[in-house]
Amino acid sequence: MSGVGSEVWGLALQTFVGVMGTFFVIGSFVKNHGLVDIAWGLGIGIMTCRLALKSSFGSLQAMIGLLVLIWSMRLTGYLIYRNAGKPEDFRYAGWRRQWGKHWWWRSFFQVYVLQGLLQLLVALPVLLVFRSGPVALGAFEKFWASVAVAGILMETVADFQKAVFKRNPENRDRLLMTGLWRFSRHPNYFGEAMFWWGVGMMSLNVQYGLLSLISPLLLNWLLLKVSGVPLLEAHWEGRPEYDQYRARTNRFVPGWK
User: Fold this and answer.
1) Among 52, 181, 195, which Cα is nearest to 129's?
2) What share of the chain is helix, strand, coil (3-state, %, to 5)?
3) Is 257 within a domain?
4) Mapped to the 3 state alphabet, what secondary structure does 90-157 carry?
5) CA 165, CA 158: separation in Å to the nearest integer?
6) Cα–Cα distance list, 35 to 24, 89, 188, 221 (Å)
7) 15, 17, 49, 249: most buried by Cβ count inside 10 Å?
8) Residue 147 and residue 198 in contact, taking contact as beta carbons nearer than 8 Å
9) Are 219 and 121 in contact, with CB atoms under 8 Å apart?
10) Structural contact between residues 148 and 202, judged by C-beta atoms closer than 8 angstroms
11) pTM for this one?
């Protein structure tokens, strides 16, 4: 199994280097490193396809592979739609101004190399499952598969509601506070967290399965403390509309305050 493990890790590393390297060249050429967001889901999807083509697998591998591919296609398609014809995302544009002449090499390491390494860690459940050989899908794994499905559905609905809201020019630079966004300020991120908790828990019973929990724990930390919620909320900070919204709406987990 050690040979299989080496092949799995090598394939994953090769995929992420290829995808991130390609997007760095494209982003540098068009002066839009916000495109790296597209590379996130696309890279994990490509890696999963390559693993499926090279591995022998059972129902657990088939289920995780299918779920991750659906997640990848949904996220990649949505981000292509969201970024089409738009300027560089305010987060990357801010770093471009902040880093000045050092932007090209800092963006390579801090945006692309760093995200490639994070991809590898978030994709740990997929790697561990495919390196373990054929495994059957039990009741425990089926339950967590349903959690992952619920996560995909939640982020799909949340993103659709936001896309419809933003399509109206009158809503430019305004907050969406209806639908799922009435119960959580970030229902799309909560759905993303649900998905990776589902996939991580599905992988718990394979060899070295405890390592799969690094994925959802890391993702929760990134969303809540680093690049997700904090950056977006800082963007809206100090606006009366946002202050009212924050006072009556849960930050992350949907519900009533």
Assistant:
1) 52
2) 80, 0, 20
3) no
4) HHHHHHHHHHHHHHHHHHHHHHHHHHHHHHHHHCHHHHHHHHCCCCCCCHHHHHHHHHHHHHHHHHHH
5) 11
6) 9, 9, 19, 22
7) 15
8) yes
9) no
10) yes
11) 0.90
Contacts of 256 (CB under 8 A, 6+ apart): 183, 250
Say which residue the tokens 């992350």 belong to. 252
| Residue 256 belongs to a domain | no
Q: Do you know the residue count of the chain?
A: 257
In a domain, 255, yes or no: no
Closest CA to 83 of 45, 152, 37: 37
- Asked if the structure places residue 254 within a domain, the reply is no
Side chain identity at residue 252, one-letter code:
F
Range of the domain at 200: 2-248
The number of folded domains in the chain is 1
- The answer to whether 20 and 63 are in contact (CB under 8 A) is no
Q: What is the pLDDT along the chain (257 residues), one digit of tens a residue?
A: 455 567 888 899 999 999 999 999 998 888 888 888 899 999 999 999 999 988 777 899 999 999 999 999 999 999 998 888 777 777 777 777 887 777 778 888 888 899 899 999 999 999 999 998 889 999 999 999 999 999 999 999 999 999 999 889 888 888 999 999 999 999 999 999 999 999 999 999 999 999 999 999 999 999 999 888 998 888 888 888 898 999 999 999 999 87
Tokens encoding 188? 């799309």
CA distance readout (Å), 240 to 159, 166, 174, 175, 246: 24, 20, 11, 11, 10
- The tokens for 2 are 């050690």
CA 24 to chain centre: 18
Q: In the numeric block, which tokens belong to residue 7?
A: 């092949």
